[in-house]
Amino acid sequence: YSGSGGLDIGLSNTGAIEIVGCVEWDSDACETLRRSVDKGITTVIEADIKELDVPDVLESIGRSSEEIDLIVGGPPCQAFSVFGKRRGLDDPRGNVILDFVRFVEEIHPKAFVMENVRGLLSMKHEGEKGGIYHLLIDAFNRLGYRVDVFVVNSVNYGAPQIRERVIFIGNRLQLVADFPEPTHSDKPMGDQQRFATLGDAIKGKKFRDQGIMDFSPRKKGYLEMIPEGGNWRSMPEEIQKESMG
C-alpha cells in the first residue's frame, strides 16, 4: 500500500534511504509511482498485498531478506477512522494491516515505520477499547521489535493541511526512537514558522490546463447536502459516517 508514494519519496528525499520496491494495487497510483523514477522509485509491484507471497516480492525486487533494512507502509485507514463505520479487522480494508505484520515477520528488517489514522489507537477488538493497538504492539514485540508510537499532525511540519496521524516506529536493535520537534505553529516560538497555507504551497507555480476527476453519483449526493461555506460536518451525523465509509 504505497499509494502514490508519499512515504517512499519522503524517505528517498532524505538521501539516506534507497527505495528498492513498492507494492500497490490501485492502477492509477501505480502509474504515478512509475513516473517517480527521479524521486527514487524503482520497482513497482501492482498487486493486492493479501495475494502476495513474501519470497515472490523479494524475487521481483532482486533482494534477499537480509538486504532489507526498513519496511514502511500506510495500510488503508477507513476501517479505523472515527469518522467512518469503524469495522476494524472485520472490514477487508482494515484486515490488510495484518499483512504489514506478516511482511515484517517474514523479512525481519532492522526497522519498520507504519502510519495510520489516530482512531486506530482507540479501535476496539474483541470488545476491548484499543484492542487493535494492543494486538499490533504485542505482535511486533513477539517478533523482537521495540515499538515507539507518536501522534503527529502534518501541519506542524510544513504541510498546508491539518492531517493528524499515528506513527509506529519499530526496531529490533532495541533503540529508543525520537520524533522531530514541530517546525511550524499557529503561534510560532523560537525558530518555528507559521502554519503553511495552500497559497504558500502553490504560489508562483504553473499548472497545466487539464481535466479533473468527476465524482460518482454517490459522492455528488453527499456534496449536494453541504451548503456554501460548509463542510462534511454540515451533513447529518449518520450520513457523515456513511460518507466516510
From TrEMBL:
Gene Ontology MF, one: DNA (cytosine-5-)-methyltransferase activity
Alphabetically ordered keywords of this record: Methyltransferase, S-adenosyl-L-methionine, Transferase
Enzyme Commission number(s): 2.1.1.37
PROSITE patterns, sorted: C5_MTASE_1 (PS00094), SAM_MT_C5 (PS51679)
One Pfam family in the UniProt entry: DNA_methylase
Entry's Gene Ontology BP terms: methylation; negative regulation of gene expression via chromosomal CpG island methylation
GO cellular component assignments: nucleus
Group of enzyme by EC: transferase
TM annotation in the entry: none
Record's protein name: DNA (cytosine-5-)-methyltransferase
Biological source species: marine metagenome
Species classification: unclassified sequences, metagenomes, ecological metagenomes
